[in-house]
Amino acid sequence: MSKTLFITGASSGIGAATARAAVKSGWNAGLFARSEDKLGALVEELGDQALALPGDATSLNEQRAAIGTLVERYGKLDAAFANAGMGLSAAGTEQGDPDEWETLVQLNVLGLLWTVKAAMPQLKANTGHMLLTGSAAGRTHIKGSVYGASKWFVHGYGGNLAQEMREWGGRCTVIAPGMVDTPFFDEAKPDKLKPQDIARAAVYALEQPAHACVQEMFVMPTG
Questions:
Q1: How confident is the prediction along the chain (223 residues), in pLDDT tens digits per residue?
Q2: How far out from the chain centre does Cα 200 lie?
Q3: Among the options 74, 147, 157, 204, which is catalytic?
Q4: Which single residue of 73, 107, 139, 173 could bond 205 by disulfide (Cβ 3.0 to 4.6 Å)?
Q5: H helices within the chain, ranges in order?
Q6: How far is C-alpha 94 from the geometric centre of its chain's CA atoms?
């Protein structure tokens, strides 16, 4: 039976690229994001191995419902990728927008926690794998960066979660990209990483033998 992966932020960028790479490797993919039209186009491209699951990552109930629908379709859940996230338009603390910070925390911190919470019963039943999108910004100090601090949370929590999942044979991987040329940025970054680079890293981590866990992976541009 094919394995099944749930991906948040699946409508573009790293999430969409990971869906393509996972399906190519034989996985089924549940595509969760707010952009229903983009999800539909991606499912049309990928075929029966993909399922569109429109929803908001900041809602635990919507993530739970999406995973339930995914399991009904494919029979089980083997892995989940908490990938949805956002940046900020105003950098630093003094110039930062508190309303924007609140939105960021809802998605980058709580949204990620909701993915883990929603997926965990299924992952535990299938000795599954949790992927989290961290960042190189989550391992270095950047002047006043609230975004970077949200990714420090991902790395810290990811390590803690790996310890918890290890008790029942599960695995947790934090994938930490450097700058990636995605719609995350207003301007193109043609000399930086591509979403496909991070997708290959995700599939690599997922397809390690059961006795091996890639717990943290940095993918950095050479330029």
A1: 799 999 999 999 999 999 999 999 999 999 999 999 999 999 999 999 999 999 999 999 999 999 999 999 999 999 999 999 999 998 899 999 999 999 999 999 999 999 999 999 999 999 999 999 999 999 999 999 999 999 999 999 999 999 999 999 999 999 999 998 876 666 766 778 999 999 999 999 999 999 999 999 999 998 7
A2: 13
A3: 147
A4: 173
A5: 13-24, 36-46, 60-74, 98-104, 112-125, 146-166, 195-206
A6: 30
3-state secondary structure of 175: strand
Hey, what are 99's tokens? 């309303």
pTM of the prediction?
Answer: 0.95
157 classed as catalytic = no
| Sign of the CA dihedral running 85, 89, 93, 99 | negative
Residue type, 178: G
User: Count of residues for the chain?
Assistant: 223
CA distances (Å), origin 14, targets 43, 182, 186, 194, 202: 16, 8, 16, 8, 10
**In this structure, what token pair is assigned to residue 160?**
């803690």
